[in-house]
Amino acid sequence: MTLIDLLSPAAVISPLRANGKKQALLELAQHAAQLTGLSERDLFEALLQRERLGSTGIGDGIAIPHGRMAGIDRLVGLFARAEKPIDFDALDGQPVDLVFVLIAPEGAGADHLKALARVARVLRNPAVLEQVRAVRDPAAIYAILSESAAQAA
Question: Catalytic site residue 66?
Answer without folding.
Answer: yes
